[in-house]
Design goal:
seven-stranded mixed beta sheet; alpha/beta; 12 helices; single chain
């Protein structure tokens, strides 16, 4: 276990190499806070990065940006939080002075650093240190498990918000994994009328329907686009691509025809070719989306509080930090929706022992 001077940290040293290292606690600077981790989620970005495939995360790196914890020390200039506060992190670390920051779009900071994704610290550690202004207070009525879903839900909330007005619109979501299911909740909260989801796995489609999707379609069917449009009753106003590979982007453009919007939510592993002749001729808008703003956290909190996103539906695995390698292994397997790394053994909280 860690001491006041030392902490355990998860580090991804090479593809599929998840290790635990012990290092000195990094004391907070004047504007930082030291936080003791309670829960940290294994994100889709992490499962991509651990395989060496993430285009923006180089190995080695210290993971953990979906994190909940308690503030244990603060720097002398910190007024935004206090010792004992339960917090989650807003991982982007914008400079605050570049053009996009001045325009209120700090998720697009020109000098961006990112907590838990290549920065000097990450949340999969006994303690971590981060700028206090990037801590978000967990509502008092939230469990730690609910709090662990705020950050991952904020990404689809942001995607839905910048896509446009979804009120009474038809929506297709490609990919019924964690982000796809959260996208389902965000699109429904934004007022979408009909939502059809696609995936290659039947069990994921069944789960999506149990969580409120109007229907699900096998993504590999040769006439998939025709079937989806039949279920929608028309072409899709918005297609949220939560997979982002060559097949899904071509399918998304086909589904959105004509005049629709394709929102790229997933992280592509490399360059993707877009059928530009259809984009031009059918007046299709392709919209990228990245992370979130604090207002998206506020909306995510409201969706969770209303019961539209529940830990019971999403959290399918828990592993203590000492078993981080196993947590990553099962997360990469695709058999889990959301895997959490915990500060203590699950048995100490009356939880079942880790299982595959």
């Amino acid at each position: 276990m860690s001491t006041d001077q030392e902490r355990r940290r998860v580090i991804i040293t090479a593809p599929s190499a998840v290790e635990i290292t012990t290092q000195p606690v990094r004391e907070p600077s004047s504007a930082e806070a030291l936080v003791r981790m309670t829960l940290a989620g294994v994100c889709g970005s992490d499962t991509t990065a651990v395989g060496g495939h993430h285009p923006m995360i180089a190995l080695p790196y210290y993971p953990g940006h979906e994190v909940v914890g308690t503030v244990v020390r603060i720097g002398p200039d910190v007024t935004s939080t206090k010792v004992g506060s339960r917090v989650t992190v807003i991982p982007p670390l914008p400079c605050g002075t570049c053009k996009t920051c001045r325009d209120g779009r700090n998720n697009l900071c020109e000098n961006m650093e990112f907590f838990g994704c290549g920065w000097i610290d990450g949340g999969m550690a006994d303690t971590f240190t981060v700028r206090a202004d990037r801590l978000y207070a967990v509502p008092g009525d939230f469990s730690d498990e609910q709090a662990a879903l705020i950050e991952p839900l904020a990404t689809p909330v942001h995607a839905a918000r910048i896509a446009g007005d979804l009120t009474n619109k038809t929506v297709v979501i490609q990919g019924a994994g964690t982000i796809g299911l959260l996208m389902l909740a965000a699109a429904r909260a934004a007022g979408a009328r009909t939502i059809v989801m696609t995936d290659v796995l039947k069990e994921k489609l069944e789960k999506a329907k149990s969580m409120g999707a109007d229907d699900g379609v096998d993504a590999l069917l040769p006439n998939m686009a025709t079937i989806v449009r039949e279920k929608l009753g028309e072409s899709a106003d918005y297609v949220f691509d939560c997979v982002a590979n060559q097949y899904t982007i071509e399918a998304a453009v086909s589904l959105a025809t004509k005049g629709g919007t394709v929102v790229v939510v997933g992280v592509p592993h490399g360059n993707i070719t877009v059928p530009l002749h259809l984009v031009q001729d059918h007046q299709i808008r392709i919209q990228g989306t990245i992370t979130y703003l604090e207002e998206d956290y506020d909306k995510a909190v409201a969706i969770i509080r209303n019961g539209h996103v529940s830990p019971t539906d999403f959290i399918t695995g828990r592993y203590p930090i000492s078993q981080a390698a196993e947590a990553f292994r099962v997360a990469v397997s695709g058999k889990h929706t959301k895997v959490l790394i915990t500060a203590e053994k699950p048995s100490q909280h009356g939880m079942p022992a880790p299982s595959n």
